[in-house]
């Protein structure tokens, strides 16, 4: 308990999945949490979970693919608590985005410039916007921790979802670049690289684990990870337990990449 007691954590993608799990876990561990997502109803559910866990938090609906949305999120955090000690960038879309945006998760020769820009804006530009606005605040405070949720798809290729893999690869290298740039400001920047995680983002493909042979091929643990398992990894990198981690890519994938 109290692993981030007294800290303020700004968590994006807080409406569902890993972001929601981070909100609840960080609140249980003593942080004041600010959750950001595009959908107010999802945020309301997340905040109810935070309150039920005895936590202190607020939520704000904003589109982080735009600079204006990120400005709204950061302003809300500062208005509520006056500082930002931890930034967890969970916002993004995955393969299920196909349902809302056909053509967004295909190979490069089947992706329009508009779909490329759309996914990049959500999965990479949002991270840039949030870091650009939060780092000056952390400098003023004397430090902070940034945790970016990326993907093993940013390390290895996929036969589809080329925009997604490019965005996640960019997020990993941006993490490393921020890390080596802001060391002297006492700002740490690290990321986790999840594998298959049981979230709405990949709900449409999780049925693959129902077949034992396919499940074994996907990961040695033969199951998807949980949002809570990812949240614990984010908690470690956001807390003072990881003060010698800088530019770290923490792979949390049940062994998927270990045998490649």
Automatic annotation (TrEMBL):
CDD domains associated with the record: SDR_c (cd05233)
Coiled-coil regions listed in the entry: none
UniProt entry keywords in alphabetical sequence: Oxidoreductase
Superkingdom of the organism of origin: Bacteria
Stated name of the protein: NAD(P)-dependent dehydrogenase (Short-subunit alcohol dehydrogenase family)
Alphabetized InterPro entries for the sequence: NAD(P)-bd_dom_sf (IPR036291), Sc_DH/Rdtase_CS (IPR020904), SDR_fam (IPR002347)
Any Gene Ontology biological process: fatty acid biosynthetic process
GO molecular function: oxidoreductase activity, acting on the CH-OH group of donors, NAD or NADP as acceptor; quinone binding
Annotated family: Belongs to the short-chain dehydrogenases/reductases (SDR) family.
